[in-house]
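BUG: 3D viewer hangs when loading the predicted structure for this chain

Environment: internal workstation, default settings.
Expected: structure renders.
Actual: progress bar stalls at 90%.

Input used:
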Amino acid sequence: MSNIIEHLPVLQIVVPLVAAPTIVLFRNSTLSWILAVLASWFCLFGSITMLNQINGGGEIPTYLIGGWDPHVGIVYQVDIANAFILTLLSGISAVVFVYARTSVRDEIPEAKHHYFYAALLLCFTGLMGMAITGDAFNIFVFLEISSLSGYALIAMGRNPKALTAAYRYLIMGTLGGTFILLGIGFLYMMTGTLNLEELSHAVPHYAETSVVRAAFAFITVGTCIKLALFPLHMWLPNCYTYAPSVVSAFLSATATKVSFYVLLRAMFMLFGAALIAQAKIFLSFVIFLALIGIFMGSLKAIGQDDVKRLLAYSSIAQIGYMVLGLSLDNADGLTGAIIHLFNHALTKGGLFLVMGCFMYRLNSTKIKDLAGIGKKMPLTMLAFTIGGLSLIGVPLTAGFISKWYLAMGALQAGMWWLLVLILLASLLAVVYIFRVLEAAYFGTPEKEHDVEEAPFSLLFPTYVLIGSTIFFGIWTEPMLGAARKSAELFLSSGGAL
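Structure tokens produced before the viewer hung:
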């Protein structure tokens, strides 16, 4: 078993990376789905094993790719923070990939199924790689793998607007990736290393140089573009709205979460000890961007007539909550941000799976087309209701835990007024969730729905994610404990900014 654990870090990348071209080689829809599911479940097993190992006080050996010295080679190093992220990514993928079989057959032409699953695995590989790598340039490489495959996945949506959405994402994603690459290049120019651990020790010696300050600016702005932080969010709504249902669920639950993790690494472990003054200025500025994003996203969500677009704007608001926790720069606030990353992935991923159920039966996710659907698809609407309650932050749901810790972080920072704003933003979430519930349970359809409940193959994965919002809202350990340890790791690495 020890030999397996020793190689688990690299297997998290190798298994899905090898499975992707294998799928294209065999060009079979059923086999493609089976390989994708097996790869995701293997990664879930590996991630949980590593997380339990670290939670139990053990350590995962540093994995040197090719046996090269860390100074010149690529290192995979697992700590509590990225073990937490790896578990989230693989867990979401394991559920969504199971769901994909029925949904993809309905929304994607069969001739493209093997390409779809290959791109989905490549996107998954890129996101996992960003989380586990200990090499700065490797972060950019995996970022591009996930981004390029993500553009292709979005473009496969059957609505013609999917192509426009993918193109806009390509433009913004390229800008973000270029900024990150420039920042990494500046760091390498000054320090002569790309190893993240070596960079964290070397950067303080060049903290007063304009090159390192420029690197800080490029990396933070580039990451915020990939994160879709207001006002750099314009690519996100159309992507989530017009992408295939599986893609909307997968990207909403994973892509922005990994970008936020990269931002945390950069702020606290790479630049934290070196650029405390600049980081404090950035955080004092970004707190207002986070608040604007929370309220702007919520208000825009209220005015939408398509539930997928409503959920997309809601994601912009939820990203604001995560960045708000980061900007508080204390243990409770950062714990709230990290656990909100986890909880929002479960909630929003589950809600987009619900939208996939509606697409399967109604071929629409517009609110007017959902009028009265609560009587025809009661299990699907129950899943939406539970997910909506978690999004609002009702007690006994995962969303409540997140906002509770964000509130404690605000008090710890002496910003009591943030409690009022968090409460007001939650009330806005009540409004846009209630709009959907009102139409589904009390609305009168323009014509009688002749539909059945969503099939078990769609409902089961949906309830796994939606049910998890209740499960982790009641049983807060071990994920809350992992989030707390991750926050302590970040704060101790660079010190509180």
